[in-house]
């Protein structure tokens, strides 16, 4: 029986397995490195894209903040302008209040009542005069209180037996305030009566 030496064959098989293992290990390392590199590239791209979004959002936020600041300035300017216009309008009303009151008095003072003096102090007016009867004074007081142009009407005094023009009258003192906020026209404050007059 011949003796067969299997040692070289086994050694060759061992070398082949070793080479295959090394090749597989190298391929695995290359694939793992490529996978890691691809994953890092993908993550880097995602980070860059997210940073670009953040830069865009930050730019828009900055623009909106500038727009808001401009809007605040415009609003402040508009408010200041409205205040100035309101002040000018109030001054205009204050300048015209005497004319408005004097135009309204003939519609408010009934026939038989005569105004001697009109005194103005700011928005306050004081009238003094004479009346032929108490009923006429009551009628005038009612018209003053019903007028949208006047407010805080107060009759201070009524003195009977005042002599004027050789006749006996009732002298009176009345005060009121001009209503600057009233939108009523002075001509519609009360019906005009015939023969109304101011002395």
From TrEMBL:
GO terms for biological process: type IV pilus assembly; type IV pilus-dependent motility. Keywords: Membrane, Transmembrane, Transmembrane helix. Pfam families: PilN. The keyword Transmembrane applies. The chain crosses the membrane at residues 21-43. The keyword Transmembrane helix applies. InterPro entries: Extracell_DNA_Util/SecSys_Comp, PilN. This is PilN domain-containing protein. It comes from Vibrio qingdaonensis. The lineage of its organism: Bacteria, Pseudomonadati, Pseudomonadota, Gammaproteobacteria, Vibrionales.
